[in-house]
TrEMBL record:
Protein name listed in UniProt: Iron-sulfur cluster-binding protein
InterPro entries referenced in this protein's UniProt entry, alphabetically: 4Fe4S_Fe-S-bd (IPR017896), 4Fe4S_Fe_S_CS (IPR017900), FTHF_cligase-like_sf (IPR024185), Helical_ferredxn (IPR009051), LUD_dom (IPR003741), LutB/LldF (IPR004452), NagB/RpiA_transferase-like (IPR037171)
Compositional bias (Basic and acidic residues): 1-15
Domain spans labelled 4Fe-4S ferredoxin-type: 301-332
Matching Gene3D superfamilies: Alpha-helical ferredoxin, NagB/RpiA/CoA transferase-like
Molecular function via GO: 4 iron, 4 sulfur cluster binding; metal ion binding
GO BP, sorted A to Z: lactate metabolic process
UniProt xrefs under SUPFAM superfamilies: 4Fe-4S ferredoxins, NagB/RpiA/CoA transferase-like
Source species of the chain: Desulforhopalus singaporensis
Protein keywords: 4Fe-4S, Electron transport, Iron, Iron-sulfur, Metal-binding, Repeat, Transport
Amino acid sequence: MGEKTRSLYSEKAKQALESQPLQKGLTGLQDRFGKGAVKYWRNMEDPGKRDRVKKSRMESFAGLDTILAQLASNIRKRGGHVHFAGDGQEAIDCALEIARRNGVRSVVKGKSMLSMEINIDQALEQDGIEVVETDLGEYIVQLAQQQPSHIIAPCIHLDRNDIGELFAEKLGIDYTDDPPSLTMAARKALREKLLNADMGITGCNLACAETGHISLVSNEGNIRMATTMPKIHVAFMGMERVAPTFEEHRETLELLVRAATQQPLSTYVSFIGGPAGEDDPDGPEEFHLIIIDNGRSKILASPEFREVLACIRCGACLNVCPVYGKIGGHAYNSTYCGPIGAVITPLLSGVNEHADLCKGETLCGACLDVCPVKNDLPRMLSELRYTLAYGSNRWNVRQHNVRESYIFTGWQLVVTSSFIYRSLIRLARLIQRPFTSKKNGMVRTLGGLARGWTDTRDLQPIARQTFGEIWKEKYADTPETAGVAVHHAAGSEPDPGRQPQQPEPVARDYSENSVDPLPLLEILKENAANQNISVHSAASYTETVDIIVELVRTKDPEFSHNKHIVLHDHPDLNRLRLWKKFNREAVTVHTTFASDKEVRAKTGESFIGITAPSYCIAESATLVQLTSPGCPRSTSLVPSIHIAVVRKDNVVATLKDAYDLLGTKKIPDSFVFITGPSKTADIEAHLVHGAHGPRELHLIVVGEPALPDQGEESLAATGQQSKTDQ
Ligand code: SF4
C-alpha cells in the first residue's frame, strides 16, 4: 500500500506538471491569494489577533469535552439533534438512518471536506439517493467525476474550455467558454435541485458553544439554500471546530475569512442553532449536528501534533506553498492537500500509507508565515519524517528505512561538529575536481545515487571558501564581529533606506469616540461599493418608498414575466404601505407572515425580496439579518434582487459592535451576515454575481428614526395575505 501510494504521488505530480490549465490556474491563484494574504498580515492593524486566536484554539482543546457538551446542550434546547460519531462509518450510519426515516430521495450538499473525508456520497448513492454538490466548483468536479484540487477553488485544474465542453455534454447547453454564461447555466440547473431537495448536508466552519450555533461561510449562497429549503439539515462537524465563546468565535471567523480570500467577511455567514421554529414559515423541520472524531482524539493526545487541530481550513497555506503551487491538489491523493494535507492526511489516514506527503514538502516555512493561527506545519512535517525514520508505536510505524536513519544520524554528527564539517568540506572540494567542467565550472555528472541530480541539470560546485571563511577574512578585525558594542557618531548611522521597510498600515479609527454618523455612513458607502452593493440614501420613509418603487419598475424578473415582490412582516417595512403604491402596474406584493404555509411558494415566484436587517456594519458593509417568524430566511436569498432597508441609527462601526449588540439580547436560532450579492469566482477566477442567491443587493439607509411604538399597519392587520394592484 505504501509503495503504491508513493508511486501514485510521483505519478500524479508528474501529470500535474504537464497540465497547462493547472499550471496557469495555480500561478494565478498563488499570485492573487498567496501574495494578498502575506500583504494583509504584514499590514494588519491588530497583529496580536493571530496569537490570541491560536491561544484560544489550543486552550479550548484542554476542555474540549465540556465545550462540546455545552454546544450540544444549547442546540438540543432549541430542538436540534446532536450525535457523536467515533469514526466515519458511525457518522455515515447516523446520516443514513436520518435519511431512511424521512424517506429522503435527494440530497443537496454545501461544500464539506469532512463529508468527503468520510465518503458520505458513496453511501447515500448506494442507498439510491441522488447527491448533488451545489458549490459551483464542487458541482463542476462532480460532473467531471473528479476530486476537488483546492480547499476554496475546487476546480482550479480545469479551464473555461474544459468546463464549456463538460456543460455542453452534461447539461445539454450550447458550448460556451464564457464564465458568466457557464455560471448562469449552473445557477439554473442547481436552483431546481436546491429548491426541491429533501435533505441538505453541510459541514461546519466553526461552532460557538456559548450560543449553541454552528456557522457556515460561503460566497455563493448555496449553503444558505441547502440549510433553508430542504426539510432536513444534517451538518458534519470535526470535533475540534468549536470556539468556546461568542467573542472567540468572532476573532476566529475574521481570521478565517481574511486568510481564505482576503475579504473583510464572506458574502454569507450563516449561524444555525436548531430547526425552524414552530411559526417560522421556512427553514428545516429537523436539524442534526453530527460531531465526528475519526482519528482526531488520537491527534489531540499527541503533544507533537495537537497543534494541527487548530487549523481552520482557510487554504492559505496552499496559496503560498511552492510544492502545491506546482503539483496541485490531486497528487496528494487525499481530501486534504497542500501543506495542511501533508500533515493531517497521514495522521488521520495512516502515516505509512501517506509517507510521501511529508517528504514532498520543502520545509521552506512559507505556510507558517501565512497561516492565520500560526500553525507550525514545517515542524510537524519534520516530526512526521522523524516518525517515519525512527518508527513509532503510537502511529503504528515501523522504522521505515534503517539505512536512511543511519544517514541522518551521520548527518547530525557532521553538522553539529565544526571540525568534522570543515574537514569533509575540504575533502569534498578535492573529490569534485574530476567532475567539474572547465568550461563553466559546474559539476556536470555524478555517479552512484547522486546521478539522479545531474541527469537533468548541472550542480553548483562547492565554493572555494565557505561563508564563514569569507566573513572571517573580510571582517575579522571589525568591532561588531569582535562582540564590541558600537555607537555611531551623529551623521554616521546606518542608512535607514537600507533597512527593511514595513508599509504603514492604513490609518482608520473605528473606535467609538471617533465615530459620528456622517463619517460612518461614508465608510459604509465606500466599503459597500467594494462589495458591489448599491447604496441609496433616503431622508425619510417616503423617499424610501420612491426608491423601491423605481427599482421594482425598472428591474426585470429573472425567471418569469410576472412581477412579484416579497417583504418581511417588519414594522419598518409595513409603514411603507407598499401594497398601495403600484396602482397602475401589475405588481403583486407578498408579506411573509408567521405560519403562512405559502410563504415558500410566494417567495419562489418573487423577483425582489425586501428585508429590514437589524444592523449594518460599516467596516465591511455587512447586513445582520435575524430570523423570526415574520422574517424568514428565504426572503433575502431566493429572489434575484435583495433590497435591505436599514435605519441610519442601526449602522454600527465594526463586526465587534454587532457581536456585542447581539450578545446583549436573546440570540435567535438562526441569523445571517450578508456582505454583498451572491458571487463566485470558481471558473478561472472570473468574478460573476448571482451564483445561487441574489444577483443584486440594494441597501437603503433611512435617516428617519423608528416610530415610537413600531405599531404600523401591516397587511396582517388588514387581514390581507397578498395584494395585487393592477
Ligand atoms: S494550516 Fe493554517 S493556513 Fe493551512 S489551512 Fe489550516 S489554518 Fe489555513
